[in-house]
Amino acid sequence: MNKDTDHRGHRQSFLHGLKAAASIIALCGLMVGGPVAAAGEEPVKKPGTQSIKIKPPPIKKRINVEKIYYSQFGLVTMATRRLAHERPGTPDLYFVGFGGDAHQDVFLREVQAVRKLFDERFDTKNRSVVLINNPKTVTKIPLANSHNLLAGLDRISGMMNIDEDVLFLFLTSHGTPDVLSVNFKPMNMNNLTAKNLKFVLDQSRIKWRVIIVSACHSGSFIDDLKNENSLIIAASHADRLSFGCSHKNDWTYFGRAYFDQALRNTFSFTDAFPSAAKKVGKWEKEQKLKPSLPQIHVGEAIKPKLREIEARLKKRFKSAKAGGGAKSSTQ
Description:
Radius of gyration: 19 Å
Number of domains: 1
Distance between the termini: 42 Å
Number of strands: 9
CATH topology: Rossmann fold
Structural class: alpha/beta
CATH class: Alpha Beta
Shape: globular
Order of helices and strands: HHEHEHEEEEHEHEHHEH
Strand content: 5-15%
C-alpha cells in the first residue's frame, strides 16, 4: 500500500469516527426519558397488554465494569476491521446479531447459532458481526448496546454499497411494549426502544434493511421501523408474549422455528415466515400458551431486492452442491 492510499484510509476512518461520535451524542439526548424495564424487574406495562416477570439466574463471574467499558472501542474496532468490502455487481448481505440480555444464555446461543447459519448458508462470512451481553463473552465480543450498534453499523455502511447491499439485523432479548431489554448487571445500560433503533438505523444511512426482533411485545417495533425499503419481522404481536427464553434453551420458540427450521429449507426471508409462525402456533397450542401471533411487514420497494438476493443464494448453493461443498439442507 503506498503512502497516499494509507493516508486516505486513515482520513476515511477518522471521518467515520467523527460521524459516529456525533451520532452517539445525539443518541444520548434521544435516550433521556421515562423508566423502562429490564429482565428480572417488574416490566413497564401499557394498558391492555400482557407482562411477565423474569427472575434471571445470578451472574457468578465477577464483572470489572470499568475495564469492560474502556475495552469497547477496541472490541468494536477488532470486530469490524475483519469485515470484507462489498463486491461490485453482487447484492451482498451483511449480518449483525444483537443479544440483549446477559442473564439467560439462550440469547447468547441463539445469536451465535444464527450467525453460523448465515455465514455458511447466506454467504455472510467476513460480513457478519455480533454484539452480545454475557459474562462468557464479555472480554472477546462487544457489548450489545445502542452505542456499539451505532458504531458497528456506521462501519458496515462504509464497507457496503448502500444502494445495492442489504443489512440483516437480528435482535433477541426480553421485551416490553416498544422496549428491548439491554441488561447486564452490574453495568447500567439503556434499554433499546423502537425510536432509538430507528434513529440508529437512519444514522447509518443503510437503505435496504431486514430486521428481525425476537422478544415479547416485539410487534410494537414495526410501526417505527417500517418503510418501503424494509422487511420487518417480529416474534410476537405488540400486546403478546413470545416464548422459549429459558436459560437452558438453545433457541427461543420463534428463533428455532424461523432460523433453525424454516430458513434451512429456503433462501426467502418472506417465505420462511408463514411456516415459522404456524410452527410456533402449534408449539404454543401444545403447551396451552396464549398465541404470540408473530408479525411481518414487507415494503414494496424491497421485494425485488429480496428476490435478487434469493436468486443469487440459490445459484451459489447449487454450485456448491455440484462441487460437493454444500452444508445446508434443501433449496
